[in-house]
Design goal:
The chain is mostly helical. It folds into two domains: 2-156, no CATH class; 168-340, no CATH class. 77% of the residues lie in helices and 0% in strands. Helix 2 (17-49) crosses helix 9 and helix 7 (127-167) runs antiparallel to helix 8 (169-185). The longest helix has 41 residues, at 127-167. It is globular and about 65 Å long.
Length: 352
């Protein structure tokens, strides 16, 4: 056992929930953002502006989602160069064989391939052959064995969530909005979770609502402590910046959570807000306005598919209210009440 532990330590193979569930998952979301999401945005811009070159670039970027995710995961696992570069083929195979649940398949398969590649890296005199060979054979083999089942499982869970949201938009609007919003603020990736589950439709709209409640809510509730800099860094950056403060005083998390429980069902029941763009957008909220761009892209997709006649004023009103206005108004009001009863003290929300 001591020999195995020494070998794993020497190879920087750390088997832990943090390494795989936070570092690798977060990196996967960045890889997805840098390929599929950016590609979708460029494709949309190209179509709207009539610029074919942008559309072509967008398609190229989107098609590299699998390799980008796998390489990002390898980077998070601190894989050596030969392992890292070989993960491109591994990601492509896992994403393709995983189908609708490709991102989840890439996560598992890339971790397995990267760690096996790290284990043999620089152990032989022909490292330039052995390391990529082991990485790609293990990765593609794991893709054939695991990716279809993982993809089906992820797609099934996502479909169940979306179907339940259609059947029970009020209760599921609350549940999805609150849970995805919480995931966004935690040091895990809500975007990767939404991508892995293929979360779109009304459930995607509720996820957008929950993420916006956290980001915009914290930004405006903490304006007194953090000013314009904090407003921007949280409102279009990430509410994860508040995690150290949440650890010190968990009660500061209640106002945005309460608001997400309000805006979620409003999104599903009143405004029928649907996120039919790239599923990763469902978990991005107002980060770079990606959630809103995703909703707009979904409108265009629906119009192209003939399921939506046009983008209406009501669509825009619902998106603006859910994404910006309600979180910006309700969260500070609830926060003010919490300040007056002593649950939130001075500088509890100050960013370090």
């Amino acid at each position: 056992m001591n020999t195995l532990q020494a070998f794993l330590k020497r190879k920087n193979i750390v088997i832990s929930a943090r390494r795989y569930g936070i570092d690798a998952l977060g990196a996967m979301a960045q890889g997805l953002f840098a390929s599929l999401l950016i590609g979708t945005i460029l494709n949309t811009l190209g179509g709207q502006l009539g610029i074919e070159a942008l559309t072509a670039v967008g398609k190229y970027a989107s098609s590299m989602a699998g390799p980008a995710m796998a390489i990002a995961i390898g980077y998070a696992l601190q894989a050596p160069p030969l392992v890292l570069f070989t993960l491109a083929a591994v990601g492509q195979s896992a994403n393709e064989l995983g189908g609708a649940g490709g991102p989840l398949a890439v996560l598992f398969v890339a971790i397995i391939a990267a760690e096996c590649g790290k284990a043999v890296s620089k152990e032989t005199r022909v490292d330039i052959l052995v390391t990529p060979l082991v990485t790609i054979l293990v990765g593609c083999g794991a893709s054939w064995l695991l990716a279809p089942a993982l993809g089906r499982a992820a797609a099934l869970v996502g479909s169940m969530i979306m179907a339940a949201t259609e059947l029970q938009p009020f209760l599921m609007g609350i549940a999805v909005s609150v849970l995805v919003g919480i995931a966004l603020t935690l040091p895990i990736s809500s975007a990767a979770i939404c991508a892995a589950l293929g979360l779109t439709g009304l459930a995607g709209g509720a996820a957008v609502a929950g993420c916006c409640a956290q980001m915009v809510g914290f930004a405006f509730m903490s304006y007194k402590e953090n000013g314009v800099g904090g407003l921007l860094s949280q409102g279009i950056g990430t509410s994860m910046l508040q995690m150290p403060n949440i650890v010190r005083n968990p009660k500061i998390w209640l106002p945005p959570i309460i608001v997400s429980a309000i805006t979620g069902p409003l999104a599903t029941c009143v405004f029928r807000l649907q996120m039919n763009g790239a599923p990763v957008s469902s978990g991005m909220g107002t980060c770079g306005l990606v959630g809103q761009i995703g909703v707009y892209t979904g409108w265009l997709n629906d119009i192209a598919a003939g399921t939506k006649a046009a983008v209406t004023a009501g669509d825009w009103i619902g998106l603006v209210l859910i994404s910006f206005v309600l979180p910006a108004v309700l969260t500070p009001l609830i926060g003010l009440f919490f300040r007056r009863i002593g649950w939130i003290r001075e500088n509890d929300l100050k960013l370090s």
